[in-house]
Amino acid sequence: MSIALLHYVIDAFFILLLTSMACLIFIFIIHFFVPKVMIKTYFKEPYFSPLEIKLFTGPLYAYMRTAMLMRLAGWPDCGKKRGIPATAHEVSPVWFQIVSRVFIRALLTVIILYIVLGLFPYFVFTVLGVL
Q: Per-domain residue ranges for the chain?
């Protein structure tokens, strides 16, 4: 494997790292803009266990709650397993639904690129036997 190719892989990892940091900052900011109606309506006992409610209300995991509610706002059918009705997205504003769809897709793209880029050195060094 040439040094130039390795340089491109390292650059891609650095760009993905910066993108991940931007996603964390974004989820921290959007956490304060999650519709309170959505939290009060769907983040309660019939849909979540008492342990989950207590855990996802704390400071460490509250951002996971934000991501779950963003997913619920962007794709209403994803709450089917928990028994959340498909009309759950109607309590959130349209801008939150659009932002949720864009953010979740961007986050999934970054995660998939991390996995692919993480497997690239393994494939080059182990399977191809380069070095």
A: 3-127
